[in-house]
Amino acid sequence: MTERREHAQQDRHVIGESDGPMEDALEAAFDRQVSEGAQRLGRPWREVLVTGFFGGTEVAIGVLALVAVVHATGNPLLGGLAFSVGFLALLLGRSELFTEGFLIPVVTVAAKRAGPVQLAKLWGGTLAANLVGGWLIMWLVVLAFPALHEELVTSGTHFATAPLSAETFALAVLAGMVITLMTRMQHGTDDMPAKIVAAVAAAFLLAGLEMFHSILDSLLIFGALRTGDATFGYLDWLQWFAYTVAGNMLGGLGLVTLLRLVRSKERLEDEREAAG
To answer: Which of the residue ranges 32-36, 117-121, 171-175, 231-235 would you say has the lowest mean pLDDT?
Structure first.
């Protein structure tokens, strides 16, 4: 009996030692998230719109790489890897993508370090600026690369004409989960190579598996519309966009952020008490 008790104590000690560094890492990640979120949510309109505009242009460069590789190879998985250029530009350029705002800013608001109005400003301004910046670059892509028109029309039609169904909504939910998981992984480490791996992996899944992502696929649709050969219009895009945004938010907020808040319940309570 005594021997078993000693072994149990040793096991608890070992577990405590292994849990300590993990808890410290989670605490540090939480503190980074709240600190960064407060800075992002405190930006004036000018900064929100500029960083969002750059985010749209950088994703559009990734879309160009995606379309070019699929055009040359016919392989969407290789195209997904090529699209990672856009996410790497976002990472290194510190721009803002609408769907990357489902974790850090929400955690910050939950910790009462910012308010819902600031969150709405960040989301709304970033979303609009992403679309404007992406539309501009796709207009230039259509002018510069006539050989890609057919591929743009094919890809854009695939998304813009997809009706709302269990399959399409699930693709949107998964896309929101993947992009938010990428954000969580990147903020869980200070190691830049690890951040890059997370960006490439997310790009591969989103673009390579043709998930429904509100910004990425909108730019493919815009490119198709700019060619003048599309059989659909902006109203078709808007209908697709509405349910895709809803699915992205459900996946990001419900399947990643909510669990992060539950995991950090004690730290959230401490932040709320400190905030008064």
So the answer is: 32-36
